[in-house]
Amino acid sequence: MKILMIILQLILFIAAAPFLSGLIAKIKNNIRLRQGPSIFQPYYNLAKLFSKGEVVSQTASWIFWVAPFVLISSTLAAAVLIPVLILASPMHQMGDFLALVFIFSLGRFFLALAALDTGSSFGGMGSSREMFISSLVEPALCLVVFSISLQFNSTDISAFSGMHALSVSCIVSAIALFLITIAETSRVPVDNQETHLELTMVHEAMILEYSGRSLAIIEMAAYIKQMILFFLIAQIIFPIAALETVEPAQTIFWLLWYLARIIIIAISVALVEVSVAKMRLFRVADFLGFAFVLGIIAVVCAILGV
Amino acid sequence: MDCSEIISALKSKFPDFVALASSQDHPDELRLKVDPRIFKDTALALHKILSSPVMMLFALDERRERGVFVVNGVFCGFRSSQWVMVSMDIPQDNPGFETLAKSMHSASLFEREIQEMFGIEPRGNPDLRRLKLHDEVWPQANFPLRKDFQKVQPGNLGEYKFGRVDGEGIFEVPVGPVHAGIIGPGHFRFSVAGEPIINLEPRLGFTHRGAEKLFEGKSYLEALKLSECVCGDSVFSHSLAFTRAAEKISGISIISQAAYLRAIFLELERLYNHVNDIGGIALDVGFSYPSAYASIIKEAILQLNEKLTASRYLKNVNALGGVSVEINESKKTLLLGSLEQIKRDFNELVEILYSSGSFMDRVDTAGVLIKKTAEDLGVLGLAGRASGVAIDLRKCFPGVYKEAKFKMALEESGDVLARLRVRIFEFVESCRLIEEFGGKLSSCDKNKVGPILKEGCALGYVEGWRGPILYWLKTDPAGMIARCKIVDPSFRNWQGLAYAVLGNIIPDFPLCNKSFDLSYSGNDL
Q1: Structural domain span for residue B47
Q2: Best mutation target, B173, B200, B288, B352, to test chain A (most A CBs within 10 A)
Q3: What is the signed CA dihedral for B388, B391, B395, B397, rounded to 10 degrees?
Q4: Within this chain, do residues B231 and B116 fall inside the same structural domain, yes or no?
Q5: Which of A121, A198, A280 is nearest residue B508 as measured by Cβ atoms?
Q6: What is the CATH number of the domain that holds B93?
Q7: Domain boundary among B95, B123, B151
Q8: Are residues B100 and B220 in the same domain?
Q9: Do B98 and B217 belong together in one domain?
Q10: pLDDT tens digits, residue range B184-200?
Q11: Residue B258 contacts by C-beta under 8 Å, 6 or more apart in sequence?
């Protein structure tokens, strides 16, 4: 049964994650009075990339080949850590909330190495910027984890799944996590997924040398990571009780609300992206510093019990 | 200032000055011929007297006619509305002249160009690396603008050496010539310490087509077509500069209606380019909403262009003695009506940009080009005005702009915001000018002129949207073009960009670059 749940959850993540990026792109384009590509464009892109060959720099070593697989496996590992289909985390004996932070770091570490591996100057710039940003993201993310753990008296992710009261601490940590998510999913104002300007890129600069199947795997990992983060925000700020009955009408309603809360987060991300300009690189420290301060407030609130 | 005044001013600057010949074929052009030995001092004196950078410095091959090369330096009296051209003959054996670049930085690029195109050596110039004929593909001792140049002779290939910065932790980042966006090719060599830029050396010339050589031997009509292809975003201003030179040579004066029409099209070209750049600046900082908004406005202007002239980019509009399209009552109503809508949309766009804190934070203090550097480099036009260089050919040589009480944009801070403000100011001013000129249009007969040129030479000049576009034209007795020297503002302003980005971080380079928005093809020719 548990194995089935894990497999189902993985399938759900792989199948649904690209849709969120397609949706965000569509919303952004519509706000800009443009038609934009179809909502399913990320799927078409993946299909295209999977069927293409790869061009690999002559200076690249095995790290370049291995990195996409480390990235996707670590992201999938994170995906089975969080409770989505059932109340308990399917693999909670594997690790807790804090493990999530470090599983993400593993993938990032390998990607940064791979970017340096090709010897391209853009890869080096991308790696150095990514490390700069992640060194600011991780402390803030840890604080969010602490505040959640304090509230639910456990670092187990299963603890806060299901219905819970919406405390001040919840709201503040959700906002902090939202800012972190913007940085982690390389969106404006921290990074810009749409840009063609190599010199301004962060995440895109790291993967500039990748093509074909490896690129598809990296893209896929990014989609899944985005969905995990959206799910966590949704679960903190829009808690949902477990499905108790199997009555069709109720199941449909439950399912709709389940999806709607993630879509609400996606819409918020899209709105943020079109309404601000990208920050100067070194101002990102202020932005993520703000997330860090929010994290501290959330921890204090959790200790005070509000 | 007329001829004698300039000469006496020169004499007071340095007493040894003697003009071998002086002439004033056209009211706004003064020509002095001097001995090569005093050329440098004369040029420096003119530089000081007129407080003008080197506007042009170029050579001519007159070995067949007179057995000499000629080098001309052009300066501009911005206050006295006059061009002063000083020229010297250089013997054809072992040709060379004393460098001006050591005393006047704005001459340095021109000297490098003379060296590579004619093989006339600016003696003492510390930097004689080629600009456009890349050493890797173009053998040495091939000088394409010499008249006897037929085709490339095989020879030794050279190597281009970039300026290097040494020191601990300094990295070189090569970017281009192939870029991710759909832009022209240019190579940028950054020396960085972490993210901050210590040195930037642009290497251009990848789109060198030999434009100046192509002009030679062409008839007026062929050359007009060619001038429209020199720089794709300044089609009208380039052809206008060319036509003005041709008109001066043939002694054609244009009627006021044609002058109004030309001014309208010149300003329309400015409008679509300025709004395009404003959108581009927003896009380069990832601010996509106003950028999309700007592209809507740009499209409206391009469609207006098409309805008025049957060409979105104003091709085939200029003609000797006027313009080839007519604006009747219905077109006039269309023009003024569309302009109302464009102005409304533009105000909205400016409102969005100015009210966005995140956007203003990006453009404020980014890419500062100080006034002193701008003056030394000879940066002119839009980028110059943003750095406090108060020069606009529409102000210095007003013509019909005088009636419209043209107001020049000027900013002091020299950053991206200043260049943005200049664009916004000029957009609004151009709309006003078009309305003003549009109101004065009336139907009238066109100037009928045959497309045959007389013999002579003259300078044509236009303040394009980027800055002054200069065409110096010389025709032979058959009316064919013997030499056409083009100076696009990009040529002088690329160096400004290289200085403006110093101390900025690499990710801000595209923004600085966009705020100058220089042309590759205009520079490379």
Answers
A1: 3-123
A2: B288
A3: 170
A4: no
A5: A280
A6: 3.30.460.80
A7: B123
A8: no
A9: no
A10: 889 999 999 888 999 99
A11: B321, B322, B323, B446, B447
Q: Could you tell me if B470 and B360 lie in one domain?
A: yes
B71 and B216 in a single domain? The answer is no
Please give, one letter per residue, the 3-state secondary structure of chain A: CHHHHHHHHHHHHHHHHHHHHHHHHHHHHHHCCCCCCCCCHHHHHHHHHHCCCCCCCCCCCHHHHHHHHHHHHHHHHHHHHCCCCCCCCCCCCCCCHHHHHHHHHHHHHHHHHHHHHCCCHHHHHHHHHHHHHHHHHHHHHHHHHHHHHHHHCCCCHHHHCCCCCCCHHHHHHHHHHHHHHHHHCCCCCCCCCCCCCHHHCCHHHHCCCCCHHHHHHHHHHHHHHHHHHHHHHHHHHCCCCCCCCCCHHHHHHHHHHHHHHHHHHHHHHHHHHHHCCCCCHHHHHHHHHHHHHHHHHHHHHHHHCC
B113, B225: one domain: no
Residues B263 and B359 in one domain: yes
Contact flag B356-A31 (C-beta cutoff 8 Å): no
Phi-psi region of B286 (alpha: psi -120 to 50; beta: other; left: phi over 0): left
Amino acid at site B130: R
A25 vs B: CB within 8 A: no
Residue in A with minimal Cα distance to B173: A121
CB contact under 8 Å between B362 and A279, yes or no, is yes
Instruction: Output the pTM of the full model.
Output: 0.90
Q: Is B397 a domain residue?
A: yes
Q: Which two tokens stand for residue B90?
A: 């250089």
Whether residue B508 sits in one domain with residue B395: yes
Residues of chain B with C-beta less than 8 angstroms from the C-beta of A125: 173, 506
The secondary structure of B32-101 as a DSSP string is: EEE-HHHHHHHHHHHHHHTT----EEEEEEEHHHHSEEEEEEEEEETTTTEEEEEEEEEESSS-EEE-ST
| Domains of chain B: total | 2
Cross-chain residue pair A198–B287, CB shorter than 8 Å: no
CB contacts, 8 Å: B356 with chain A: 276-277
Is residue B131, in this structure, part of any structural domain at all? no
Q: What is the pLDDT of residues B122-158, one digit of tens each?
A: 999 888 888 898 988 888 888 999 888 888 888 888 8
Q: Is residue B73 part of a domain?
A: yes
Q: Do you find a cis peptide bond into A139, omega within 30 degrees of 0?
A: no
In Å, how far from its chain's centre is CA A294? Answer: 19
Task: Name the nearest CA neighbour of B249 among B41, B513, B449.
Answer: B449
ipTM confidence: 0.87
For the domain that residue B459 is a member of, what is the CATH number?
1.10.645.10
Q: Is A48 on the interface with B (CB under 8 A)?
A: no
Q: What distance in Å separates the CA atoms of residue B368 and residue B502, rounded to the nearest whole number?
A: 9
Q: Is the pLDDT of residue A85 over 70?
A: no
Domain boundary among B80, B104, B123: B123
CB atoms within 10 A of CB B511: 27
pLDDT mean values, one per 10 residues, chain B (525 residues): 76 81 85 89 88 91 90 90 90 89 90 91 89 89 88 86 88 85 86 90 91 90 91 92 90 84 92 94 91 93 92 89 83 89 93 92 91 92 92 88 88 92 94 89 67 84 93 89 92 92 91 91 90
- Count of CB contacts below 8 A, A vs B? 82
The DSSP bridge partners found for residue B33 are B21, B87
Tell me whether A275 touches chain B (CB under 8 Å). yes
CA distances from B516 to B109, B267, B465, B501 (A): 18, 19, 11, 11
Instruction: Give the whole-angstrom CA distance, residue A186 versus residue A194.
Output: 10
Domain contains B176: no
How far separated are the first and last CA of chain A, in Å rounded? Answer: 38
